[in-house]
Amino acid sequence: MSDVKYTIAAGDDDDDEHYTRFPCLAMVRYAMAGAVTLLAIAVIALVIHAVLRSEDVRLSVNNGFIGADNLWGRTASLGNENQPTSSSINKVEEDDPTISPNIGSSSADPGDDLPIGVASGQSEHAPTILPNIGSSSNGGGLPKECSLGCRPAAQVTLKKAKATNLRVILIAKNPGGRTKIDCSNTTVRLLDVQAPHGVIGELELGNFTVQPQTTITMQKRLSANASYIWDNYPGEVRFSVMVQVNAWVTSFPLGKKTHTVAQSYTCQPVTVGLMDDEWIYATDQVDCTAS
Ligand SMILES: *[C@@H]1O[C@H](CO)[C@@H](O)[C@H](O)[C@H]1NC(C)=O
Ligand SMILES: *[C@@H]1O[C@H](CO)[C@@H](O)[C@H](O)[C@H]1NC(C)=O
Ligand SMILES: *[C@@H]1O[C@H](CO)[C@@H](O)[C@H](O)[C@H]1NC(C)=O
């Protein structure tokens, strides 16, 4: 402003020569005044924008990935164990009633958590089964060329997991940075993106606060519906879900009353996979959009 006064005063003092000598200066002055005005308008617009949007919290799913401790279980069984349908059991019982206890014990799970081909399970069962197999004429599923010393191969079948725990990692940002943001009664649901679009699991994230210009990371486990996973993704090592976050979001606009709204955010595509496979399927953070 002071240079404006100075040039006006100079114009009053000097003759016409001044205007012919400094026409450019006048142009620069106008241009600068225009720029300052634009800048002021831009700043006001930004402030209004920040106040209006101050309730915005940005949520995202870390790596776009949710790790599972397991997605299905395994049954390690003897090679001849896939036979005991009800009809074959009845047939064997007619032939030799003493065999049925052995079949009953071998068709029970020989240890859910046994890794593939555990030797102890086989050596326990082998002596009790082999003599019976030898006595029955059909060989009980063993190849004919196997003599009494031939051991049945362990067979691994997949089955429903007893329980599936998922580790959900959510990131919340408050980029506006003018006020803190409270999220309360926050719930997280995982929905299958494919038909039948069921709920795979839910968890309560409760209450949390994101201070201005900070990012917080929250990790919580949820117990997923193992039946649903088994029914729809048997034996799969990963599948896609949509993550839905519901919260009451409270912001504290400057000079105004606090403002609480019910917000629903959806984040997709998010991969559910085995914890150990995270490095394979991890992506960038998957941002959630308010709906
Ligand atoms: C979470 O916040 C809500 C509302 O702000 C409150 O009613 C509730 O008691 C809080 N829950 C916990 C566990 O602090
Ligand atoms: C949050 O949940 C608590 C009970 O868990 C309830 O008393 C409170 O009213 C809820 N708050 C909101 C904002 O829904
Ligand atoms: C789990 O999913 C099955 C469908 O696969 C459904 O029938 C059952 O109700 C679900 N259980 C829970 C607790 O949601």
UniProtKB/TrEMBL annotation:
Q: Which UniProt keywords apply?
A: Membrane, Transmembrane, Transmembrane helix
Annotated transmembrane regions: 30-52
* Composition-biased stretches (Polar residues): 77-90, 99-108
Residue ranges, annotated region (Disordered): 77-114
Q: What's the protein name?
A: Uncharacterized protein
The protein's organism comes out as Panicum virgatum (Blackwell switchgrass)
